[in-house]
Structure formats: C-alpha cells, structure tokens
Amino acid sequence: MTAEIFARGALLLLDKPEGLTSHDVVERARRASGVAKIGHSGTLDPMATGLLVLCCGKAARLQGFFTGLPKSYEGSIALGRATTTYDREGETTSESRVPELSLDTIERAADAFRGRFEQLAPPFSAKKSGGRRFYEMARKGEEVPRLPKTVTVTEFAIERSAPARLAFRLSCSSGTYVRSIAHDLGGTLGCGAHLASLRRTRIGNFDVADALTLDGFERADPELRASLPHAIPLSKIPLPFPRMPVASLEAWKVRRGQPIPARLSGSDGDWVSIVGSDDELLALGQMTPVGTGKIAMIKPKIVLAD
User: Fold this and answer.
1) If you classify domain 2-66+205-236 with CATH, what class do you get?
2) Contact at 8 Å (CB) between 208 and 175?
3) Cβ atoms of 79 and 194 closer than 8 Å
4) Checking phi first, is residue 279 left (phi over 0); if not, alpha (psi -120 to 50) or beta?
5) How do residues 235-287 score in pLDDT, each as one tens digit?
6) Which residues are CB-neighbours of 114 under 8 A, at least 6 positions away?
7) Catalytic residue flag (residue 45)
8) Cα 241–chain centre separation
9) Which of 83, 131, 182, 251 is deepest in the core (most CB within 10 A)?
10) Which of 45, 210, 221, 279 is catalytic?
11) Which of 18, 13, 20, 73 is nearest to 41 (CA)?
C-alpha cells in the first residue's frame, strides 16, 4: 500500500542525518517505499543535516517547482582556520590567531553578506563549467573558474557562542553557498574561517519539524510511512497557483493534454492547478488570455492523472 500511495505522487519530508549524501537518502527512501522514481529538491552536503523534500512517483514531475524555493539554515562558523572545502572536512589552507573581535565588528563584517550580493561557489562543489564539476578540477589541482552568481540573504543572525565560534541563523535564495559565506566572512575578519556545522530547517513553507528521520521512515509500518505531516499526497501538495476545478468532460480532455477554456484573468504563461473530482490534482496548465483577458485557454503542461 505504501508503494501505491507514493507511486500515485507524494512529497516526503525527511530529516537527513549527518554522514550521508542526499543521493544516499534518496536510495534508502526508494528501498523503504518501494518506489523507484524519487528526486529531491536541493542537495545537502554529507556533513549537513536537516530537511530534504523528496518528490515521489508522479510528484517527481513537480520537482522543479520546489528546487527554487528559498531555504533556511542554522549552524556554526569556526574562526581561525580556512579549508579547501570551506567546511570542517577540508584540508587546512591557513591558520591564524583569532583576534579580540567585538560583536559590533563581526556584525559590520556580516553586513556584506546580507541582501543581494555576488558570490563565488567553493572550489570543491558540484557547480559545472564546460560540462565538468568544480570538484573534479579541484581534485586534479586545476584552477577553478571564477563564475560569480547573485544571491539574496534575507536573514543572517549571528551570536558569539565561544571565543572562536559563531552561531548563526540564515535564510537565503536557492543556490546560495553557506560554506562560501563562512569562508568569506573569515577573510573579511582577517583570521580565516570555515563552516563547522549546518542544519537546514526550512524549504519554502516546509519545516524540518514536520519531517521524519530516515531511520524512522525505514522502521515505520506502511501506514505511518505514508501519513501526514511528513508524507503529503498529490492532492494536498501546496502549490502557489490558482486552483481551477473542472467537470468530467473537461477532466477527460485534460487527461489527454487537450486545452480547455476557463473564466480566469492573468498573464500569458501563468500556471494553474487543474483539479478534478475528489480534489484530484489532474495537471498543471499554463494560461493564454483570450480577447479582453476575462477568458483564457488553459493548456495542460504537466499531466499527473492517468
């Protein structure tokens, strides 16, 4: 029954343990659920813990909508040591005595990493250039390209937890490297730094408090594995689009990918959730306004119903 529920489409919220890659978690979830088609919406490094949103079965077709959601983290930064990977698992590139730094001094340095700014990915990262991963180049001693990317940090709260340790909370746009923020903050402070710990607490509106541990998911009986709040069936997935109920004839057309008219106003290309009987999510469609814009044609783009 568990396999059937996840195959029909569901999101699975898991709390990733330390020491596993995101791919490791996906593989274990596949074995436990009996569903082969599972993707995730945002990688966590092996040393990191916290929320992974897995898109199972038909929900795997929605993965792109969740990958770009903003993320929130908590963790710690160790001052006085910089590493090749910008985290505690890398080789030391420099060590310095940590000067006496007031919290005001640290806050002023942290201001450079609030709001919108350009960021470089760590040399040991999965970012690609010319079809090659950065970490592949770094492992061979090759120079990694400098490809700055604009990111947005909406919250970066810091407190001193020890003379050479900073605890932080951070909320940011998708694709932000927290390791780079830790490394670059150490450079700004003049003593070097690396990311000592990291836990992802939120992805969009999904919270790690609603997630199940990986071990708990594997040990749970089938009914618990597929229950709320950590397992969200297709019909209850919170998508940020208008919901458009349709009658049986329109549902028949939607299931076959045929466009249908609707009394909706919006812009060309806007997404719509097309819902059938029993609140079944049939498809996601895109809108093309007609005439004065009070009527639109909705073209199913991602058909989820059989």
Assistant:
1) alpha beta
2) no
3) no
4) left
5) 899 898 999 999 989 999 999 999 999 888 788 999 999 999 888 999 999 99
6) 153, 156
7) yes
8) 19
9) 182
10) 45
11) 13
